[in-house]
Amino acid sequence: MLDKQITIAGRLISEQTKPFVIAELSGNHSQDFALAKAMIKAAADAGVDAIKLQTYTADSMTLNIDSDNFRIMEPDSLWYGRHLHELYQHAATPYEWHKDLFAYAKALGLIAFSSPFDETAVDFLESLDVPCYKVASFELTDLPLIKKAASTGKPLIMSTGMATETEIIEAINTAKAAGCHDIIILKCTSTYPASAENTNLITIKDMQLKFGCLVGLSDHTQGIGVAVASVALGACVIEKHFVLDRNAGGVDAAFSLEPSEFKALVENAELAHKALGKITYGGSAAEEKSKYYRRSIFVCKDIKAGEILNSDNLKIVRPAIGLTPKHWSRVLGKTANQDIQAGTALTETLFD
Question: Which residues of 60-71 are buried (b: 16+ CB within 10 A; e: fewer)?
Fold first, then answer.
């Protein structure tokens, strides 16, 4: 385990602490402020540690030009055929919401922050005194943006979907050079939704070794299984998209968790972390009483003094109060030195 630890708004994050669970609101609020607040309340009730917004405008994300260059052309995409500018315009969280949503989240005991998608968004979020920044996978190669966010001196969480080792190193080095040393990187698969087969969680361990950072998971799979499994590999942060009701829609609804699922994620991720424990052999203290129900050698038929011990009058059964089964071949053929009643645990004193 890495001994690194980072504190965000008073919450300690490390491999030794329970996973830091982030509910990503994304554009699932459908630009309905009341719905956004209801999502934050439901996330708090589900037990998450933090909620995250995305801070951008359609114009800061792309160009409003009617060309296939600015259209999603992959037939298997959830957003096939949509123009990028129109999609981002529909999904954006209005800047004027941020202050009130952050305040509401904090009042509910949540840590609230955002992903800036350009340098002006960092300036805006700084005016709201966010406790940390998240860099999205698609922005990991935007080194000027990383430099800007890192220069605030606040912790930086960076998703690494699609990134090569070189690109991850460049992002980390850029952040460090700008003065940020509290860095968490997230394993991420940038498909929407992602499948378990292309998640490759085993990479988490390799990321810890190669980059020397705390590592978490930004998960776009459906359900909670992949996210819970990541804890066993050392993920200390889990980020999932959140929606009140998938059937009601939302730009990311297909791969987002509903409140009951998020609650199950929080509970099971914590259980998975507790289950890691430490390397141990020989049974725990809690198992000591269970050792009684191991097997040992018992007399199963009455035996007279002078009789030979054999497989007809001895048997290996529970509980473990006689000689252990490893002595079986040694005691066969021995002579009883006294009468022995059936049901007696065989001990060294009962035979020559």
Answer: ebbeeeeeeeeb
